Amino acid sequence: MIVLAFSLFGFGKLAGIALAVLVGAGAIALGARSREAAAPLDAPPDPRTPQGRAEIVKRLRKIEITTNRVVNETLSGQYHSVFKGRGMAFAEVRPYQPGDEIRTIDWNVTARMGDAYVKVFTEERELTVMLLVDRSASGDVGRTRRTKAEVAAEIAAMIAFSAISNNDRVGLALFTSEVERFVPPKKGRKHVMRVLDEILTFSPKKRGTDLAGALTFLHQSTKRKSVAFVVSDFLADGWERPLAVAAQRHDVVPIVVWEPWQAELPDVGLLHALDPETGEKVVVDTSSRHVRMEYRRRQEAAVARRERTFQQLELDAIRMGADDDFGPALARFFENRARRIRA
Predict the structure, then answer these.
(1) What pLDDT digit, counting tens, does each position of 280-337 carry?
(2) How far apart are alpha carbons 214 and 254 in whole angstroms?
């Protein structure tokens, strides 16, 4: 018999099959054994010990070196072009030069000086970038080469270093069934390293997912418009309306982190299914073609519902596998968004 923890999201009681599949929000992973074994698989290093602190510093340095190179070579300029500031602010006046827009002439200064002068404006660049990172138990199981914390840290690092290279502020919210950690937005490398440290050392107290609550928290805590990157598998219920409300004020960018094998239930005979967020267990006959087809149908319906919501709200989403490098995915997002802006 094989034991499996997998996504039970939207997979209710199946007609004609004598078993109940419990609704949850997990992620497929070989090796989970019981409710007691549902502890996070990527327990962070203990920062209270010298060995743990040294390991954290090592990870932080590796992430900084890797992401800074990508940001400096590719992403920083793209980031600036697709995320505009709050508007234009008057900077100075200077003598008129051929080719200047006539409408920029400052007629008061021109009359006083006897020569034509134009107003010069600069972009009010300062933006607030918020990172909302889902650290529920559904991300603690998987067959990936990196831990969930490392994936989240890589994503946050590339976005955060792109932001501070443009003098923008960066904030962080880590959430499960509630927002467990909040770092107010600030500028600078030192602050970004603190954000990454918080992600790598974070140990969730809760196991569930309340994506709707996290989006509501964003709307309530961040009054001015921000660029909000929401990192989640989006395997939850009831987040569509809060997302729509948040998108009215903020530039929301969903980052969907998924496992390729979440889409289909493997044919491995009888198995024990475990929801890592609730601990609920059930025996599933995966040799049944009907069970596998129904599971696939429900998963596809959930994905279609998610994508339809993004489309209706006109959100530019980033989709990546948990084992993918985030740099190329972010670069493609910037390129696609730039094309849409120019269109």
Answers:
(1) 888 888 899 998 899 889 888 989 999 999 999 999 999 988 778 888 888 888 888 8
(2) 13
Domain extents for the chain?
Answer: 40-82+125-269+288-342, 88-123
Nearest CA to 42 out of 181, 204, 180 is that of: 204
Residue 39 DSSP one-character state = S
- Model confidence, pTM: 0.74
Q: pLDDT at residue 24 above 80?
A: no
Rounded Cα gap, residues 60 and 52, in angstroms: 12
Half-sphere exposure of 102 (CA within 13 A, CB side): 0
- CATH superfamily, domain at 40-82+125-269+288-342: von Willebrand factor, type A domain (3.40.50.410)
Beta carbons of 185 and 250 less than 8 angstroms apart:
no
Please answer whether residues 201 and 170 qualify as being in contact, where contact means their C-beta atoms are separated by less than 8 angstroms: no
How far apart CA 214 and CA 87 sit, in angstroms, is: 28
**Contacting residues for 118 by C-beta, under 8 A, at least 6 apart:** 93, 94, 95, 96, 97, 100, 101, 104, 105, 106
